[in-house]
Specification:
Blueprint: E1 9-12, H1 17-27, E2 34-38, E3 44-48, E4 56-60, H2 67-82, E5 87-92, H3 111-122, E6 126-130, E7 145-148, H4 151-161, E8 166-170, H5 176-186, E9 189-199, E10 202-209, E11 216-224, H6 228-239, E12 244-252, H7 258-263, E13 267-273, E14 285-288, H8 291-302
Parallel strand pairs: 1-4, 4-5, 5-6, 6-7, 8-9, 8-11, 11-12, 12-13, 13-14
Antiparallel strand pairs: 2-3, 9-10
Helix pairs in contact: 1-8, 2-3
Pfam family, one: Pribosyl_synth
InterPro entries: PRib_PP_synth_CS, Pribosyltran_N, PRTase-like, PRTase_dom, Rib-P_diPkinase
Keywords: ATP-binding, Kinase, Magnesium, Metal-binding, Nucleotide biosynthesis, Nucleotide-binding, Transferase
């Protein structure tokens, strides 16, 4: 008697519900049913309301703070494992806690490594994520990691703008590799900002390496949190004679007064993905959905076909 592999099931954590609906629709299915029971003290319990025994399960959830988002994903993974799912893939459009990828001073944790181990302990047999803050985080896992790049989404948009004298910029030294990759793909110049920090999210000094006079500059980064770096870089470039400055950032954390900084800055446009839902809309912020990208990769993973075409950078 032949055994037919059952169709995969897709479930969502609450923080990624809107994106998950788009992914499931693009995949060609609906979201699986899951309910959350909540206690008065804040504790919660997810429950799959349909069988997942022997199936491939995709659980979608970004782990941006608060830590409840990470805990929700961990509980969903554990529930799938205990319900005898055959394969359990954690689909994390945004991998939170990734900025803590090393010990940058004594007596601090390596949170990214800890999160990786917790995901595996909870039951994840595969990870699909996008634009990790540091590529080497993949090495924290013992399970396969599919690390996607938002460049597959941003490059077509940038090309459609037909900007003359285009220049790609990195807002810091750490993002220079990303900026060079974009500049190579777009066949344009690249400049780099050098910054010094006085503390977390506090920039004490910034300098520009390269010429932006008369150029249409596009800043490329993996995330925007307080927007301090991007807006300061944009202001500096306009002071140095840039014709325009816009930014592409994969993950829109946008905490604190980030929206106000963006509105009052020289940025003409901030292009982001919907890996994290926006807290509010802004006329300066354009969202490009990553739903089709994740749906395509999930389909390829299920059917054991190559996804190398999604790794443009």
């Amino acid at each position: 008697m032949s055994y037919q592999v059952p169709e995969p099931k897709i479930f969502t954590c609450t923080q990624s519900a809107e994106l998950s609906e788009k992914i499931a629709k693009s995949f060609g299915t609906g979201l699986g049913k899951v309910i959350f029971s909540r206690y008065s003290d804040g504790e919660f319990q997810p429950s799959f309301e349909e069988s997942v025994r022997g199936t491939r399960v995709f659980i979608i959830g970004s782990t941006n703070p608060t830590s409840e988002n990470l805990m929700e994903l961990l509980l969903m993974l554990d529930a799938a494992k205990r319900a005898s799912a055959r394969h359990i893939t954690a689909v994390m459009p945004y991998f939170g806690w990734a900025r803590q990828d090393r010990k940058d001073k004594p007596r601090v944790p390596i949170a990214a490594k800890l999160v990786a181990k917790m995901l595996e302990a909870a039951g994840a047999t595969r990870i699909i994520t996008m634009d990790l803050h540091a590529d080497q985080i993949q090495g924290f896992f013992e399970k396969p990691v599919d690390h996607l790049f938002a460049s597959t989404l941003f490059l077509p948009y940038l090309e459609s703008l037909n900007l003359p004298n285009l220049t790609i910029a990195s807002p810091d030294m750490g993002g220079s590799k990303r900026a060079y990759a974009y500049s190579k793909a777009l066949n344009c110049d690249v400049v780099i900002c050098y910054k010094q920090r006085a503390g977390s999210n506090i920039i004490s000094h910034m300098e520009l390496i390269g010429d932006v006079k008369g150029k249409n500059v596009v800043l490329a980064d993996d995330m925007v949190d307080t927007a301090g770096t991007l807006t300061k870089a944009a202001d500096l470039m306009m002071e140095r004679g840039a014709a325009s400055v816009r930014a592409i950032t994969t993950h829109a954390l946008l905490s604190g007064d980030a929206y106000e900084k963006i509105e009052n800055s020289h940025l003409s446009e901030l292009i982001v993905t919907d890996s994290i839902p926006l807290k509010k809309e802004s006329k300066k912020i354009k969202v490009i959905s990553c739903a089709e990208l994740f749906a395509d990769v999930m389909h390829r993973v299920h059917h054991n076909t190559s996804i190398s075409s999604k790794f443009l950078m």
